[in-house]
Design goal:
This protein is an alpha+beta fold. It has 3 helices and 8 strands; from the N terminus they run ββααββββββα. Strand 6 and strand 7 form a beta hairpin.
């Protein structure tokens, strides 16, 4: 998900682009609770007629393990959903901040004049692989975005770099 943060002012100099990139989330917290309740009922209701029998015990164990696995996967999905990248482009500096949950922020800075955006359409790792090149480094942008969103991001960054270089 691309989110351009408008009305951002800096007392020192104008910012041509301030954007936050985040993975797409299919469910919010309310939707997740509903899915959680539906799955819990789906595991519990078929077991009720067999409570007290050996079959009921076996079904309870396997349903409980499956439900526990579901909770672990749901927690991991939420942790990956807290990953984000922020891009700031001003006349004198471009900054990319990459943050993952429970990890340190990774900050990359460069000069907009020497920075360029590359899009590798045929990359075997990722379709429309987007990188920034500058300071002798290549950094990956928006690996969690869809291929179309990476194309849109490339255009926005190129426009902001052109504005920064012409200002």
């Amino acid at each position: 998900m691309l989110k351009t943060l408008e009305n951002w002012t800096d007392n020192k100099e104008p910012i041509f682009l301030r954007m936050r990139l985040a993975p797409n989330r299919s469910l919010d917290s309310y939707g997740t609770k509903i899915v959680f309740l539906v799955i819990a009922c789906g595991f519990l209701l078929p077991i009720i007629p067999f409570i007290g029998s050996p079959i009921g015990t076996t079904l309870t164990i396997f349903s409980g393990l499956t439900f526990y696995l579901f909770l672990i996967m749901l927690q991991r999905n939420f942790q990956e959903g807290n990953t984000f990248e922020e891009i700031f482009i001003s006349k004198r500096k471009i900054t990319v901040v990459h943050q993952e949950k429970n990890k340190e922020k990774i900050i990359w800075e460069g000069n907009p004049y020497w920075t360029r955006v590359t899009l590798d359409i045929n990359n075997p790792k990722l379709k429309n692989y987007l990188t920034l090149v500058g300071k002798g480094r290549h950094i990956e942008l928006g690996a969690f975005l869809s291929p179309d969103e990476r194309i849109e991001l490339k255009d926005k960054i190129q426009n902001a770099l052109a504005k920064a270089n012409s200002a």
